[in-house]
Amino acid sequence: MNSALGFAFSVLGLSASVFGALGGIYALVRNTPRLLVTVRQWAWLVLLAAVGAFVVMEVALFQRDYSVKFVQLVGSDSTPPLFNFAALWSALEGSIILWALILAGYIAAYLWKFRARVLDPLHGWTLVVLLVISAFFFGLMVGPANPFTEVAVPANFSGPGPNPLLQNHVLVAFHPPMLYLGYVGFSVPFAFAIAALITGRVGEGWLVETRRWTVAAWGFLTLGIVLGAWWSYEVLGWGGYWAWDPVENASLLPWLTGTAYLHSVMVQERRGMLRVWNLSLLCSTFALTILGTFLSRSGVVDSVHAFSEGSVGPWLLVFFTVVSGVSIGLIAWRGDRLRSPGAIDSALSREASFLANNVIFGALAFVVLLGTVFPLLAEAYDGTRLTIGRPYFDSMARPIAFVMLFLMAAAPVLPWRKASGELLAERLFWPAVMGVGAMFVAVVLGARGFYPMLTFGLGGFAAGAALRQVTLATRRQGWRGFVGRTNGGMIVHLGIVLLAVGVASSEAYKTDRTATLLPGQSVEVAGHTFRYVSFEGDETSQRVRIWANVEIDGDEIYTPAQTRYTERGMIVPTPSVRPGFSEDLFLVLDDAPRNGDPDAPIRLRVVVRPMITWLWAGGVLMGLGSLLAIFPGRRRRGTEPVSAAVPPRGDVVGAGA
Amino acid sequence: MSSGVSNKLASMRAVWLGLLIASVALLSIATFDDRGPETSEERIQRLSDSFACPECDGQAVSESNAAVAANIRTFIRDRVTEGATDTEIRDELIRSYSSDVLLNPPSEGISALVWILPVVVAVFGVAGLVVSIRRDGEGSRTASAADVALVAEARTDSTSTDSDASRPPASESDSSA
Amino acid sequence: MTIRRIALTVGVVVASLVALLAFAGASSDAPSSALLGQRVPLIKGETLAGESYDIDASRGRWVVVNFFATWCPPCIVEHPELVRLEQWGQDNGELDIVATVFNDTPENVADFFVDNGGSWPVLGDPSTPIDFQIRRVPESFLVDPFGVVRAHYTGGITAEQILGDIETLS
Prior knowledge:
The structure holds three protein chains of three kinds. By secondary structure, chain A is an alpha+beta fold. Chain A has 19 helices and ten strands. The termini of chain A are far apart. Chain C is an alpha/beta fold. The interface between A and B is large, with 102 and 86 residues.
């Protein structure tokens, strides 16, 4: 029943997307507005289909309807409700339902927002592109990754439940949806960009309309990535949060190009320059979300959290090829229209600093992509098997991050067009004082080391510049000084500074010790005493959980645990973390006592990471900043495409002067 | 120019010089007042960070809970205690687990590219940046016919999103300028 | 024109990336041990029981080199098979067993042998698993009377398997 109903919704979604897209193309090419209006109905049907498929799958999961293949794969009689709900996105097929649902949601939001402009070809084409994308994902649901396939149910069957790592922490309910909201959100600006290219309306109008969509997608992606890091820290028990794993890199790539776009688009809005570049950034951001999905779903690259490889890999690669091919082709075709009219006057200007920002973000994206796919290249070339891991990415990303922090300090105080040295000296004074102050405080508190100190200094500098902007804005406009693109952006900058400081100190001043302890014994790490008190365990039909009671500083008891999931036979360590403003104490039970003998020793790993909470706080602040940036700020002229004086027609000088 | 302005400028310059000296001083304190030579515990940590666990898809030996990682950690600890050099430990591990045990790709052979390419791209990026700013900076201050058309178009574009497909394409010489 | 040229270049780069991704992953892993046909790496030192051991002393007899841990379920499963092999070796005088424990404590190993039987030498040197390129336990190697590695087993072994291989290889 669920099987048939769910499949029916998938087919409905696929056909509605295909008919809508084809009808739209026909109407736009033949210029028949009456037909164009019907595209909207198809789009609403897509939403209905996506919601239907999602609801059917959730119902099947909760009914433990094992005749549905996907439920047999990830369902179980004993999974608690929250993780049962989240089980939908715990494996490949279900995650595509979520993807389709979010895409349909964006399409609906798009229709609602632009309901008055339905006959405008720009919007018509945007809708067509969105429907083509949704046709692809519904196609996956109908064909190679059908989650609703009906299967026979063995007697007394209970499924294995979701992967144990995905039923261990409440963040599982938030991290993937956030990430998908980000990934999928870039579809809308991408569709706009393609529509602008097709209609030839590559002026600045479409940009203004996509800005909020891009900021929203970017904010979700940021939160998704940070929540993922947090989840990895709280759940995986290796004491870290970011491993430069291919799947992590795949989520970082669109974030980097998206960030570059959010900056360079301002140059286009203000000065009308960088049109090709901006379109390329938008298209590559979307293409990279598809590439990232491919990398994590196809098993091509080794990754700790790759989905088991399914048959969708080749399809995603084909889709990536189509997306890139169409984008590149359209940009090449419209290239002549895209010529930038403006000019950069000085290296000391806002636009030059945004250009520098783009070079630096582009370089980081290149390094991340290269490091991720290079092992494949090396193996294809002469069979060399390579691993490219943290040391490589760290040493590449570190200098880039310092330049970013510096630009974050300098760019916000730079005016458009041209700045003088005196102006800069004046505006950068307090930020510089703050940077030096931050270093001074750090040195007094005993922090040492070149890299962390440079992070504190540049971080203070950048934070100073951001605070200066927000202070000036609030002084002029009251609470409105916190909203709008610039001010929201400055809040995001503050979040990044917190994040950078958190990363620098939690890495540089980390202490990592493993100790074998008998009951009653204690170990001292980074000024704290950890005493192994006793050992306990409990058992449910679903899992066996054992934990050590560890007393920290003779006060609170923390319980690092190991959970063995009976159905999958997998042992998952559950770290116990004492978070704090200045440091986190992170406990992992490496080895439980043998045979559960209460007198046997345990092996306890203790990781002390100073200021890692700053990292999470920074992520939250970045999300908040994105939200503030979406609200309209102070009214100003929509665009100011070319600020160079335009002479009257009669004075036009020949080209190439 | 009153003398007040130049005084202000001079004091500004002094303050900035002070800030510069202060930051250099603080950075030097942080760099040179660092802990002494690397302890063997730190060395073990650094080495464990630099090898991949052969069974866990690129996780570092120091980060993995897998048994093979634990064994390599113990091996590194033993070899460090015995006084082996970094290169010896590295070579021994490569001999057993081949070069993909290194998290840091080697800088010879094909894998040298992974180090060289980013530098090449960075150099090109910076060069492109400098060239575009300099060229634009020297560019004409007068608008071409195409510029005027673009402005007109963009203005209509910003007030309404009517079709602008009527704009003539820019001439060849413009786009190569 | 330049835009078209750049677009073309980018297109070529993307196309080669796609080609790379499409044809990658075809590579197989799980290489057979590079030790096959080689002289057995040196296993020499003090056993966990405090006796001295040298694999060269077994020259002239077959040797099963076993890697195990007490926390590893397949190792527990294969242990009785090793006990049978040891018995066979003592009866026929042609087979020795040596084990190296992987990431475990001497106490656990002592308990394990008391509980499950067996009396072959067990060493704890972590460099032995490195020399034998062990990735996960249990793994075993069969060394012929000339000290050459002849067979490699990943996962648990059975006595029949080993004895059959000795038969075919000798």
